[in-house]
Structures are given as C-alpha cells and as structure tokens.
Specification:
Strands 4-1-2-3-15-14-13-8 form an eight-stranded antiparallel β-sheet. It is of the alpha+beta class. The chain is built from eight helices and 24 strands.
C-alpha cells in the first residue's frame, strides 16, 4: 500500500472523528474495503482495500504516517490484534479498540447504510447555496427545526428569526431535507467539491470524485419553508423602487473590525459579529471584545439607515453579500433590509442601539 493512499483515506474521514465524545469516536475504522469514521451526526467512508477489520486512533496514526519518508507501506493485522504498519526500517504498532467496541462502532457506521443508495448528480449551485445560507441558520435547541439549512426543490433556505437567506439553485434536490447548522459548518470547512447526492431515511449523503461518502444526519421536524418564503411578500419591499447602495471601500474597514469581532472559540454560533450604524453622514463600523474596541467610519451622505438603530453582521458573510450586490431595499418600517440578486435573497433585521 502507498502511504499517500492511506493518508488520503484518513484525512477524508477526519470530519467524522470526535475526541470529546464517546469511546471509539476518535478512532478510524478499517472495514476491509473501506476506511470509516462515525459520530452521532456525521459519518464518513473512503474506499480503500485493506482486507482488515479493526479500529485505531486516527490523529496519532495520521501524524506518524506524515513523518515517514518512504511511500511504500506494509499494513497488516497482527495476532494480538494490533495494526502493524511497516515502512523501511520503521515499524508502527497501533493498539486497537476492544473487539466489542470495534464491532459496536462498525455496527453504527453500517447503520448509516451507504451500500445500496440511489445516487443523483448534485444540483448545480448546491454548495454555494449551502455556504451562503449557513450564516442565517439558527443555532441552539430553542430554534428546533430552524437550526439548519433547508433544501426544498431548487431552494436553499435558512433563518434564525432575525435574518433570512434564500438561494435558488439551477436544479432541484431529490426530496426535501434539513442539514443541522453544526454539520453545515463541518461540510463547509471540509473544503471538498461534492459530485453526487443520495438520501436515506435519516441521512443525506454526498460523494466526491474519489468515491468518498460524507453522510450527515438530517434534522428532524417539519421546516416552515412556505411561511419563510412568504415573508418576502409580507414585508412589502418595493421591488420597483430604485435600490439604495452601501458605500464603496468597505472591505478594508471590515477586515480591521473583523480582528476585534473574532470569536474566542470555534463554532458557528460563536462567530464574531460587528455593528453597522449611521450618524452624521457616515456609516459606522464597530466591533469589540475583551482585547479592545474599534470604530471605523466611511462617508455615506445619504441617510439610508435611521439613526439609533444598528445592523449586526458577520464580517466575512457581509463581504460575500457585497460581492454579490451592494444594493438593498428598505422595508416600509425602515427596520429591515433586503439584498436581492437573480439567485440570492437576504433579509437583515435592524435592532435598536
């Protein structure tokens, strides 16, 4: 076996590794013709023929393999159950999970049922819609069914009751489903281009050109997509009116503010936000955390946003919006903004300062 093959397989299933969870969730599973990983909301499988069935710690094996100079490996299962990896004069012996734990972990991975799926080509625009709608998806158990990005027909939809994002894909998904926000975050960070999609009872599955399968547990509950889409009419934005425009040269101030808007820990729900407000002919950009505070101003003669209210935005997402369109429309109440393009719509609700 080639080292690069095994490294690729382990790296591909790392998304399903969880060191903070139950025993065995930080292990990779060698399943004869597959390398697998499993945690409660994500399961990953990569095709690699080893003829071996065992489970060993993922991170340590991956790091050691990366330090080997030779690309040729001799991988075998020893009589004592240890996984032996030989490369030149180096021999690695990885301790396995107990047999019962290995079987239990494999049974959980097999329960995802990736063998007899009906695969469809991934709709064009799916991953762009997933990324753009991720920032409006709800987080936390209080939002129940809204805590994810929903796909229905050719639409990707998300809301946290303060923001709404809708992206129109070029093609439709096979059936409706919602991906939990935390799983959306993992899929985006994975940075893999998916080529196909399949659905089973409780999971949505994605595959790439290498044949890896990334399975995400579907969020239970009915998603109110029709009600959310109806808000674009209910809020009565005047689409015939000339749109307003955010000032140019916002990118540099946003980058500066981003440093002091950064979250103290990882996670979608802890992504830093900054505040936008208007006063005295300027758009104010403000961010703060324990390390300090920054206030930047960009000239904006038109009073498009009333003084005394502010918009909370995540810097990277707001830059993505500005990259699509700088134009927006105000609701009749002057408390909500609508950004709109051919494929993407986003409503942002202002709050009192």
């Amino acid at each position: 076996m080639k080292k690069t093959e095994l490294l690729t397989a382990i790296k591909s299933v790392m998304m399903g590794i969880d060191k903070s969870s139950a025993i065995g969730s930080d292990f990779i599973l060698f399943d004869e013709n597959w390398v697998r990983s499993f945690k409660e909301d994500i399961s990953c499988s990569f095709p690699l023929e080893t003829g071996i069935r065992t489970a060993v710690r993922a991170e340590e094996l991956y790091k050691i393999l990366g330090k080997l100079s030779s690309d040729d490996l001799d991988v075998a299962l020893m009589e004592d159950g240890k996984l032996s990896v030989k490369s030149g004069k180096t021999t690695i012996k990885m301790n396995p999970l107990q047999k019962e734990q290995t079987n239990s972990s494999l049974e959980k991975a097999w329960a995802v049922q990736t063998d007899d799926l009906e695969w469809f080509f991934l709709p064009k625009g799916f991953q762009e819609g997933l990324e753009l709608c991720a920032f409006s998806a709800g987080t936390g158990t209080a939002l129940a069914g809204l805590a994810g990005v929903h796909f229905s027909g050719d639409k990707a939809i998300s809301t946290d009751n303060f923001r709404i994002s809708v992206y129109t894909m070029e093609e439709s998904v096979p059936s409706d489903f919602t991906i939990p926000t935390k799983v959306v975050e993992s899929l985006i960070r994975l940075g893999v281009a998916f080529e196909s999609i399949a659905l089973s009872k409780a999971w949505v599955h994605f595959s790439n050109k290498e044949g890896a399968i990334f399975s995400a547990r579907i969020l239970a509950g009915e998603y109110p997509n029709e009600k959310i889409l109806g808000l674009f009419k209910t809020m009565k934005f005047d689409m015939d009116d000339i749109p307003l425009e955010f000032p140019k040269d916002l990118e540099a101030p946003l980058e500066r503010a981003k440093i002091l808007a950064g979250a103290e820990s990882d996670g979608w729900e802890t992504l830093g936000q900054l505040a936008l407000s208007y006063s005295d002919g300027n758009l104010n950009i403000q961010a703060s955390k324990e390390a300090g505070e920054i206030i930047d101003q960009v000239a904006w003669p038109e009073n498009h946003i009333e003084e005394g209210i502010e918009l909370k935005v995540q810097p990277d997402f707001f830059k993505k919006i500005l990259g699509i369109t700088r134009n927006f429309r105000m609701s009749p109440t002057k408390k909500s903004l609508l950004f709109s393009s051919d494929k993407f719509k986003h409503i942002m609700v202002a709050t009192l300062k």
